[in-house]
Amino acid sequence: MVTDKTTEKGSTRYHHGNLRPTLLSVARALLEEGGPQALSLREIGRRAGVSAPAAYHYFSSLDALAAALAEQGFAELSEEIDAALAGPRRHLLAGGIAYVAFARANPGLYRLMFGEGFQAYSKGNEAIGASRMRVYRQMKEDLEKRLAPEKVANAALFLWSLTHGLALLTIDGQIEPGVDPDARVAEVLKLAGLGLPAAK
Amino acid sequence: MVTDKTTEKGSTRYHHGNLRPTLLSVARALLEEGGPQALSLREIGRRAGVSAPAAYHYFSSLDALAAALAEQGFAELSEEIDAALAGPRRHLLAGGIAYVAFARANPGLYRLMFGEGFQAYSKGNEAIGASRMRVYRQMKEDLEKRLAPEKVANAALFLWSLTHGLALLTIDGQIEPGVDPDARVAEVLKLAGLGLPAAK
DNA sequence: TCATGATTTTAACAGTGTAAAGATTGGATC
DNA sequence: GATCCAATCTTTACACTGTTAAAATCATGA
């Protein structure tokens, strides 16, 4: 069979396309369409115009492919946080806003990175566990500049919990429609610095 | 075939056991062993000593069975929070501690209740969406007694995010081993009332 | 006693991840 | 330029899954 294989760029290809990136990009689209549950090697192959076992030349399993996606996500998230922290606005708040904005822009990917499947595909993949810790470190380092040492651990867990929880609830549609999500997120995150408002 | 079917109680059974509760309890065990991903109708049937399609007389699908488990979970969680709020300790803090303790005691169930599969099995099941909201209401009602009306919405989202995030991070093993989880949770939740510690 | 209705089983279908084997091809070597 | 090689992809097959349709079984009311 000598059918033409046209890649996304429209050019007719030799053996077959540059598959690995194609697989990842197709998988990512699938991920955002239907969440981590929708990730399927056969569907990925189908959309890439390739037979399902073809993916096994680049990934040892579906979980391995998912892990690669997650690593991609951690790299991007880390970058966005760095950019926000380098920006003109208040450090921790800007970082938190960027964190939640990333989750909102990539809900499927965020669920993959922090979801239930995490233990499964991170088995034997130490890199991705480390990636996950890196974003935590970013928060923590900022806190270390501003707090007494014995208070850092609790404050870091506090901030990470708040941000992570807010990201997930946002993704799950718990922010009322009609309000600007960034503004709402900022308001909520500000409470972290101020504590609960005073009693009436 | 006239084989004896012995239930968990050890008694020999007529037609076959009281299946629905057995299915639920077996499924719940499976859930805590391997997380929501491990839920499998065939495995549930196997452990219940019954053929897989038997479950279809009580649940229209695997998702429906998962929804029933989730509802069970919401009822229990709600009860534990009520009990904590009625107790002698500080209201919101005690509620938060009970919330996280529930997640720690039932990690698989908690992931099912708030995890990625949620949208899937809550389709056409309005009851469980409502159940999910009920725990939010509990927090919110308590806040309404203590805050000016315009501050309630943000404060509620703030507290829910923090508690939900802390529960998930705890489940994911982000609390250092060796410390008492309840104590650690209490310390972190206290920061919600106090704000971040003052700069050094 | 016996028919009825509820319960469970067997058989089958379409879908999945994955392993093993064979086919195809692009590029290096003569 | 022809030829071999190693990388890449396909075909085939297996075990597993959720789910449906049909048949078998049993508990109980008439």
Automatic annotation (TrEMBL), chains A, B:
InterPro entries for this protein: Homeodomain-like_sf, HTH-type_TetR-like_transc_reg, HTH_TetR, MT1864/Rv1816-like_C, Tet_transcr_reg_TetR-rel_C_sf
Alphabetized UniProt keyword annotations: DNA-binding, Transcription, Transcription regulation
SUPFAM superfamilies: Homeodomain-like, Tetracyclin repressor-like, C-terminal domain
Ranges where the HTH tetR-type domain occurs: 17-77
Start-end of DNA-binding region: 40-59
Gene Ontology terms for molecular function: DNA-binding transcription factor activity; transcription cis-regulatory region binding
Pfam family for this entry, one: TetR_N
Keyword ATP-binding recorded: no
Keyword DNA-binding: yes
Identification of the protein by name: TetR/AcrR family transcriptional regulator
Species name: Rhizobium vallis
